[in-house]
Amino acid sequence: MAAARNIHKLYCKLFLLALFEPLTQQKENTMRLGILGLAIAVLGLSACNNTGTGDGSTSASGKDEMLVIFSSRHYDSDYALYDAFEKETGIDVRTIEADGDLLVERLKADGARSPADVIVTVDAGRLWRAEQEDLFAPLKSDTLTEQVPAAMRHPDGFWYGLATRARVLVYAKDRVKEGELAGYETLADPAFKGRVCARSSGNIYNISLLAALIDRWGSDKAQQWATGVANNFARDPLGGDTDQIKAVAAGECDVALVNHYYFARLMRDDKDKGVVKDLAVFWPNAGEGVHVNVSGAGVAKNAPNPELARRFIEFAMTEQPQRFFAELTNEYPAVSSITYDNAALKELGDFKADPISLSKLGENQAEAQQLFDRAGWR
Ligand code: FE
Q1: Residue 326 in contact with residue 312, Cβ under 8 Å?
Q2: CA distance 195 to 176
Q3: For a designed S-S bond to 260, which of 111, 166, 281, 342 qualifies (C-beta 3.0 to 4.6 A apart)?
Q4: Which long-range contacts does 136-143 make (Cβ < 8 Å, 24+ apart)?
Q5: Spacing, Cα 261 to ligand 1 middle (Å)
């Protein structure tokens, strides 16, 4: 069933690209691609909305049961989770993958006809956007309420954190003394002029961090911080978090703002581990502590199988899937009692997580983007 899912997944990915590609093309190409996209969309909607298993499979109960997951993630931990769920329940898992904002557009466009049972995406800021579009159905589950810390789930059960990630500072050990780093504030310190790398301000990781800092410090100090960081850039924002780490390694900058798992991934990669050998992670523990965010899942508003969706999300919090997130993707399990085997995460050490309720981040999202724009952080 996993092989069938992967073929279907690839098909649906191509379908999504075809459907939305016209939105991103130059004007002169729009008409041609629009027609192509529409034609493929008509075919694609029927195939991707197909509620039969298509491969003749049946569940352990003898009935065809299928769970459709819309996900913006494409990690081994998630594929291992889907396979484990299929094995445990006999339910066929089908996935449709695309960038988070594209998934939201697809869900909105499909409306009540949507085949999605579960929505999986990264960052509370993106979960908030989906919530604003009324894409989630509330899920009440005593099991989930007990297992997932309150800050890591929506108060009305629209989504639950599956795993967590921390936004940290990565620095060059030979050019930055640990005593020079105090917290996120350091990135705005004039002593770091021309020494800082970060990705663009349109990225949800940065928007959610600044949303948390607005809550922590108030608007004025958050504005000063964003302006200070932008003034300290060694180069214009370019690329993703891994690119920022590589820029520090290459000597383009001395310190960068990134999610921890990108660093852990490089530590564990035989080919790339040389990149991080002279670098270290600094945990901005001062004050409220390190900004922590989630990968989360919720039941889709128009889920054809809400009960299967609940079973899936509850299953994701059990020991083996929680270990997958830590061991295969270098995230931290949402269920804090789970122990796991990951030497890189152990080496990065413990940290103090900001206790802010992540469902609050969305409220400051628009302001965060404004502050970034005013700061000239592109
Ligand atoms: Fe990421």
Answers
A1: no
A2: 10
A3: 166
A4: 136/298, 136/299, 136/300, 136/301, 137/298, 137/299, 137/300, 137/301, 137/302, 137/303, 137/306, 138/299, 139/298, 139/299, 139/306, 139/309, 139/310, 139/313, 141/310, 141/313, 141/314, 143/314, 143/317
A5: 8
Three-class SS state of 253 = coil
The Cα–Cα gap between 249 and 170 comes to: 10
Q: What is the pTM of this model?
A: 0.86
- The burial of 224, by beta-carbon neighbours within 10 Å (0-12 exposed, 13-18 middle, 19 or more buried), is given as middle
The CA 99 to ligand 1 mean position distance, Å, reads 11
The rounded Å distance from CA 134 to ligand 1 centre is 24
Q: What is the DSSP string of 167-215?
A: EEEEEETTT--GGG--SGGGGG-GGGTT-EE---TTSHHHHHHHHHHHH
297 exposed, middle or buried (CB, 10 Å; 0-12, 13-18, 19+)? buried
Q: How is domain 164-291+352-375 classified at the CATH fold level?
A: D-Maltodextrin-Binding Protein; domain 2 (3.40.190)
Residues 251-310: pLDDT tens digits?
A: 999 999 999 999 999 999 999 999 999 999 999 999 999 999 999 999 999 999 999 999
Residues of the chain scoring pLDDT < 50 = 4, 7-8, 10-61
Task: For domain 66-162+294-342, say whether CATH 3.40.640.10 is its number.
Answer: no
Look up residue 22 and give its two tokens: 């016209």
3-state secondary structure of 342: coil
259 Cα–ligand 1 center, Å? 7
Query: Do the Cβ atoms of 329 and 318 come closer than 8 Å?
Result: no
